[in-house]
Please model this.
Amino acid sequence: MKKMFALFAAFPLILASVAHAGPADEVSPVARARAVEAMKRDFQAKGIAGEDRLVQDGLQAICNRTGNHPPEYMAKQIEADQLATVKFPADGKLMGDWKAGESLAQSGRGMTWSDKAGIPNGGNCYNCHQISPQELSYGTIGPTLKSFGKLRGNSPEIQKYVYSKISNAKAFNACSDMPRFGQSGALTEKQIKDLVALLLDPASPTNK
Amino acid sequence: MKQLPATLAIFALAFSSIASAQATKPAKAPKAAKPAAAAPAPAVAAKDETTAGIEKYREMLGDDNPAELYEARGEILWKQARGPKNVSLEQCDLGLGAGVIKGAYAQTPRYFADADRVMDIESRIVHCMMTLQGFSEADVRKRPFGSADKPSEMEDLVTYVVTQAKGAKIAPPTAHPKEKEAFELGQAMFHVRAGPYDFSCATCHGTDDKRIRLQDLPNLTKAADNRRAYPGWPAYRVSTSQVHTMQWRINDCFRQQRMPEPKYLSESVNAMITYMAVMATGAEYKGPALKR
Amino acid sequence: MADPMKIRASIKGDVTEIRVLMGHPMETGARKDAAGNTVPAHHIQTMTVEVGGKKVVDGQIGGSVSRNPVFGFKVKGAKAGDKVVVTWVDNKGEKRSDEAVIA
Amino acid sequence: MNNTRRTVLKGAGATATLSALIAAGALKPTDVFANEWNKAAFEAKDAAGALKGIGAGTTADSKDLLLTAPDIAENGAVVPVGVISNIPNTTSISILVEKNPSPLTSSFEFANGAVADVAVRLKLGQTSIVRAVAKADGKFYTAQKEVKVTVGGCGG
Model:
């Protein structure tokens, strides 16, 4: 992350001058800085959600300042840096139990101030994605993942891609809306394996 | 007996369909979502069928809103002489002059010279409880958000006050520099990504035609969506069986963003409300909504 | 102490529509609170609707009726100005009775 | 804010108790006493037990019994259900949610001009058959509909 701060510091003029479409860009840098200051002043720690959560890391700072549209060379650098954070399982197995993955995908809990420490977090997947066709209540913020494995197979390359994507979505899209589930510690290695299986196991309902 | 206008039904419908994005689980958490033992329909058809079904559900909920129970309690609280000074809130200045309650909510948040800051309706009621009735700050901040079993006095009072603006057009003033400042602050905060999930308000409410699970997400960077969504709060939420105020709504959005808690009545929360209210200018306010 | 009911009674042609909103927790007795303790049953058991002094509906309900219950009934033969009285009694013996006039 | 709520409600005389109404002569006691709560039926743990509890051991499907409920509910805590019986001489309507731990939700008897037409809001613990039962001339008729209960919101 320090690396990215440095990167950002080197190009403030370029960033400020890049014009992008999108509502975030209506916000002036001064207003943005004031907003961050106001939040630091007006927000308080509650439960497991400490005030440290308002400290933006380098990626968040860049996405905020560029309205989620960093210049391409910077996006590439961010994506490479984020990909480097992905830790693959020591046993080399990337697919776990799709049934455990399905119940994880259903759960929307975890990491809020009303969640208790020490209880496993949910994957929040159905909040944004369609997966198993039996689940009618799914969100559309992310693309549909129905038939994901049926369409792409489950070769080692695909497994590696899906594992990496869930672990750190920013490795493939610098300012993606999707959380970095592995990098942030929201999901464990086993949980991510189970979600990989939900998408890629031929027995998973999404691939039926 | 106060009669609800028939239009409330239409209103509740429209707003529940756009603004009921997030909620805590119902107290009695249904295991739920074990749908369709029957053969799954093709994705597109299933979506249309589901969406249509949800719309039908909202329509069938109709216009009987338990928020009326809150309104009735709030009216008693408003008119009752209370607090160390033993006076009622009837002379509270909600922005249209002392003692004017009708329509006042629709013209908030606004700058109040006597407090030298921008206040939303709940902040202003609290201000009156302190200045008119003599309650201490600790008293009024003790328990702003109630539960289904024990609603808070603020939920009752806010429900009563906002209901008196039924039929008014949302029109918060924007001429004062501090009102402009609050709008800009709210707008900027809307886009700040932080926390373990890298979320901002805009993550869920910055794009057209998205939904979480089956709940439609208004794109709150657009005036049209604010005009539909903003008047949908305060609301009685059936999933929590209680009325939630706008202060709560903003608080819960940040909870869902995995952020620390924005302080009750703080400049930040009032700025978010100001942003949405100004964006919603021109919408008709039809009273507390009824939502999932 | 229970909230007063909201009762609306309006006549259209020959049919009077009565809508009742009650303030009640309607606990089933099976729900667990956040601490994992079972919340004791607390729900309305019986309710009556009277129009013009005559009982028109005699209802019994259980904990599966939603919190803050809403009921709708229809009655023929009533007239504007008739009094509608709704009464409920819950499993703890608490009672509440409120009235409205057909409009 | 302290303990103001209680005094407020008392002070405003917001409650009209049954006994007060009776004392004031507004009601005749015989008018307001409802039938005794049917404990056996309401506490039955399955639909068959509940039906037996209300005396409906045998039922027949009827097209004249109209049950309206949403196909899918956004939240199981409040599901609007309406039942209208066009069966002549209908004297009661009961409504069951078959998958609930106690399926019988409500039972209404009609008299003195009441139409066999009732609207209620029910809790559904999960996707379930909702069943209406009408009694007419001593016989029981039934109609049913499945209501799917979905997970809503962020679930957090």
Residues 2-83 of chain A form one domain. The longest strand of chain A covers residues 43-44.
